[in-house]
Amino acid sequence: MSPALPEGDPAPADGALPASAADGAGARAFGVYLHVPFCAVRCGYCDFNTYTATELGGGASLAAYAGTARSEIAFADRVLRAAGVPPREVATVFVGGGTPTLLPVDDLVGLLDGVRETWGLAPGAEVTTEANPDSVTPDGLARLAAAGFTRVSFGMQSAVPHVLRTLERTHDPARVPDVVRWARDAGLRVSLDLIYGTPGESLDDWRRSLDAALATGVDHVSAYALVVEAGTRMAVQVRRGELTLPDEDDQAAKYELADDLLTAAGLRWYEVSNWARTPADASRHNLGYWRGDDWWGVGPGAHSHVGGVRWWNVKHPRAYADRLARGLSPAAGREIVDGDLAALERVMLGVRIADGLPLADLAPAARTAVAGLVADGLVEAPAALGADGPRRVVLTRRGRLLADAVVRALTA
Q1: What residue range is the signal peptide (predicted)?
Q2: What pLDDT digit, counting tens, does each position of 356-377 carry?
Q3: Rounded to the nearest 5°, which phi and psi values hold at 128?
Q4: In 3D, which of 316, 292, 317, 318 has the Cα closest to residue 306?
Q5: Which residues of 17-31 are buried (b: 16+ CB within 10 A; e: fewer)?
Q6: C-alpha angle 341/347/351, rounded to 5°?
Q7: Does residue 14 carry a pLDDT above 70?
Q8: What mean pLDDT is predicted for residues 264-280?
Q9: The pLDDT of residue 50
Q10: CA distance to 173, 208, 378, 379, 412, per residue, from 405 (Å)
């Protein structure tokens, strides 16, 4: 069961954007997200908008998908031009899913070619694909690199077999060092995605996963706490008492262990759940989300944001393909992000990154709350108070664990 789409206003059938979407566009980076909604199997914890590769047909099938997605790229170009958004080369491309590498390499290359031919790629553009460790080969990774991909993010999740079984992940953890080596030999930057807090995972299990990830010499690690969403198989298992979720103290201890080990290995946090060896190894595409840049999301269920207008596509691949075939926007709904909502999101996203949130982005009343957050050990004192360097709100490690409480204090 994939998540419900947000509530919002109806999206126009022609996808037309208000003229305000063009305001200030030249100062914002432009990224493209390409959603590939296919997986070989559906993991019990996952609530992403994904489908097994064999259950769909027509324009929604695995074989037809790249062509369908390219038709949205062409549609996007027409919409942006009609709105007066100035032409911008694409700074980042992120192919996510699902398992993008279930598509043939030629299809992934074709998707990137569609972006390149439509808008152009900026010099030094970051081009990432997600992948499962069991869905790549050395030749395929080399072909992606030759076509312009610069980065691959592998869904490692854990190095411990019983944890992977609980998550219903199918790859052999012993394969991870191999795929990292293949990717690096191809000239790709590499990220590993980890999940902590799986039912039955001990602190030693989590340490084993972190050690295994670091042993590969990887450039980037994402570590996310497992969230069991309603409607997933894992949620049913928890409700029946078949699985027991860890408590908040366990989750906090695992986050702190990750931060200790990753920092000791030379990786630094740049966002609450992400660590990179150097600034160049950080995910520039994801930083664009957190900084409020523009991006067009291609694919069923994909979300887009341009100039304060946010919209989301219909979820089902058949409905998505049908709308595009009829020349209609695949968007299901949209909203204008302004006023109080824009202010809330600036705080909510800005405090998550290590660069911090400028005090100038806070309402006057909220600025008075900063001193209390410093006293509570949630915000770094020098950066918050301006004693050294720019006046910004930067979370301490304790603040990262309680980021939602910080946001509430700054938006009350």
Answers
A1: none
A2: 999 888 988 888 899 899 999 9
A3: -115, 145
A4: 292
A5: beeebbeebeebbbb
A6: 155
A7: yes
A8: 97
A9: 77
A10: 36, 31, 9, 11, 10
- What does the DSSP assignment read for 364-382? HHHHTTHHHHHHTTSB-HH
Q: pLDDT, tens digit, for every residue of 153-183? A: 999 999 999 999 999 998 999 999 999 999 9
Mean pLDDT in the chain? 92
Query: Distance between CA 182 and CA 186 in Å, rounded?
Result: 6
DSSP helix/strand/coil, 293: coil
Confirm if 359 and 411 have CB atoms less than 8 A apart.
Answer: no
What pLDDT is stored for residue 53 in this prediction? Answer: 65
Name the region of 342 (left: φ>0; alpha: ψ -120 to 50; beta: rest): alpha
Secondary structure of residue 10 in the 3-state scheme: strand
* Of 392, 284, 272, the residue nearest 29 (C-alpha): 284
Q: How far apart are CA 195 and CA 218, in angstroms?
A: 16
**pLDDT score, position 387:** 53
Mean pLDDT of 239-246: 91
Nearest-angstrom CA–CA distance, 298 and 33:
6
At residue 215, what are phi and psi to the nearest 5 degrees? -65, -20
DSSP 353: B
- The residues, ordered by sequence, that sit 6+ positions from 235 with a Cβ below 8 Å of its Cβ are 228, 229
- Domains, the chain, in order of start with CATH, read 9-290 (3.20.20.70), 338-412 (no CATH)
- Model-level pTM greater than 0.90? yes
Say if residue 1's pLDDT is above 80.
no
- In a 3-state reduction of DSSP, which class is residue 302? coil
Contact status, residue 169 vs residue 193, Cβ threshold 8 Å: no
Helix, strand and coil percent figures for the chain, each rounded to 5: 45, 20, 35
